[in-house]
Amino acid sequence: MLADCCFCVTDFKDSLNTVYSAIEEADFLAIDGEFSGISDGPNVSALTNGLDTPEERYMKLKKHSMDFLLFQFGLCTFTYDQAESNYVIKTFNFYIFPKPFNRTSPDTKFICQSSSIDFLASQGFDFNKVFRHGIPYLNQEEEVQLREQYEERRSQSNGSGNPSYISPNSNKGPGSIPEEHREYIGRVDNVGLISYRFPKGLHVETLETEKKERYIQISKVDDEERKRRERQKQEREQGELNDAVGFSRVIHAISKSGKLVVGHNMLLDVMHTIHQFYCVLPEVQTRTIYMNTMVYFLFHLYLNRIFILTFPFKSPKVVTAEGFPSYDTAQEQLHEAGYDAYITGLCFISMANYLGTFLTPPRAHIPSQSKLIQPFVNNSLMCYYILYNTISYSTVVLVVQCVTIYCTTPYPTAQ
Amino acid sequence: MLADCCFCVTDFKDSLNTVYSAIEEADFLAIDGEFSGISDGPNVSALTNGLDTPEERYMKLKKHSMDFLLFQFGLCTFTYDQAESNYVIKTFNFYIFPKPFNRTSPDTKFICQSSSIDFLASQGFDFNKVFRHGIPYLNQEEEVQLREQYEERRSQSNGSGNPSYISPNSNKGPGSIPEEHREYIGRVDNVGLISYRFPKGLHVETLETEKKERYIQISKVDDEERKRRERQKQEREQGELNDAVGFSRVIHAISKSGKLVVGHNMLLDVMHTIHQFYCVLPEVQTRTIYMNTMVYFLFHLYLNRIFILTFPFKSPKVVTAEGFPSYDTAQEQLHEAGYDAYITGLCFISMANYLGTFLTPPRAHIPSQSKLIQPFVNNSLMCYYILYNTISYSTVVLVVQCVTIYCTTPYPTAQ
After folding, report:
1. Which residue of B has its CA nearest to A390?
2. How far away is chain B from the Cα of A70, in angstroms, using its nearest Cα?
3. Rounded Cα gap, residues A322 and A126, in angstroms
4. Which among A107, A126, A392 is the nearest to B113, CB-wise?
């Protein structure tokens, strides 16, 4: 039984297999992100002008939104139960923070927008969970760099590689030893000499104290013990690497699954997800991003259960998976990412099933893999506008729209 | 009795008189700030290179540090008690956040640096207090703008001014009424006509519901009641204005007091304080900023009680003012701004008293207004370096220095 659906760095590793199997068994996934801000330039309505082309919006968001942080990621998995004729859901809320992994890792800077922070604060958002216990992440390039660092260090240790005592980018050879120090140097057992003298019988390792002070531990070991320690060290390093890649592993799993992913106002979520966990966004929204990374389409959808009830869509039958905490639509928890993802998934099911009412004979359940859904994938740009008047008769245009993404070709992960 | 020395927006207004009188009675003040980051470009050691001139450091900090947020401000006031021969201290910790005041107020963006946030998180810093309950503030220009907004609205209401029904920047006059609507328009009692018909007997006011929906309330009142309501409204508006100016009022009080203000590594604190609560920093650090706003000097000082104990300085006698929570130097709370300010004040007293040991006969107490202190004001640039080796023998240079500022000419406040 999960205590709640919120995951921090402390319980992330233990939850990963649960997340992986939830993604694996799901028919479709719903995601949602919460950000430290929306726009560092134009106001939000100018940034998401309903009359912009997808290319225009992409360019605006890339220019003005990518320096904010996606710091809460909601994932809700939907699995159809044929026997019970309902969907079984599992919801996850991940708090995310780019905690520097070590002294050479990137020190990320991100912008906060006070109106966005104030809005999330008014919804009871827990900033301490983000900044104290957020799950770290690396993008693909950072992951490759860290992996290379580990491999270089491994090949240098225990004399198995070709250790370089020359600074990189230096044209000088090793320094010559002054005459008066030759005898002393000759007597000194430095680390290189030790491992040269005892090529099989020593285990040399750089360790860190709790205070992050580094020291070298040299142990006399026989061949078998040395190999055992070597394996242990490699496993520990692999564990550290996995911890550093952190939340990006969930994104890799979503991408690899090839499952349908739905969201609301989702272009921003998709762009942040690629930018933060994958790579720098291409300058122009080309076919590359459509075909090679993720394919998205715009879909009309309004994130509100009232909308579902008043429109021809029927509220779908869902149950929470056993052992998972459940959301209640009667007690709205809008703007918790997991809840928003859950509601978005409900909307998607309602609309998919609505398409089934046009069939002869009508069908109550339309699976997410149905051909009826296909025309909306990467093909349709539909915006739904609601015009409503406030009591002071100022007219407000509320653009409600939904972007659904569909991963066709999973993007490559670093190995 | 104050529960603790931390102030949020909820208890700020009630604490203001306590803060004002603490500043008023003090012999000198110590301040310290905590920031959302230090550098958006070069690493911190390059930014605060001990070999830079004050001008170079100023330019670097202005370029790379001002987009971060000063979100905790510590103030410690020191008052000498002649009878008891000790200092009486009062410590305040203010959480600060630029919560947008209304729909036209600026939507501040600020940068966070993940290493700084991570460091504060590891010290138990409470980010929820900042983002949920931080005290707002306005700089001088924003305060003037808001004051003008209020005055313009006041002069337009109740027909006392010259209300303009023409959009600003419009060259057109009022539109002409089409023939077929003349009769209807003639019958309509719009707000302008009402206050014209009842110039003394009506009170017109724009109010807001809890949902921020605005509506106009028109009440029939006699002349006396109308004036009473007018006064009430003005008082309420003045209160709102003061709430919006918020924490800047503490900075105004410090500046007006003309008291000696001490800090450590203080150029950054002074620059953030001016930038955030006063005005945009001048392009180049000219005499203007020295003479007209604040005068600062650099002083060698290390923020650590161990330093005080091992150097010739004696630990000073201080007691916490009655009703104020006390800090204990045995339980270090470094990097809570109020504690850091307190420790800095202790260091200053020790060093000031140390100067007294050179007098004949020696004097145990040197007041902060003493002529012995004067040579260090705006005159001295002294850096103290400690070179120490870590256990792994990598050499680390720790630059320890302290900047003390002294307000000579208080900067003008908006009226």
Report:
1. B213
2. 13
3. 27
4. A107
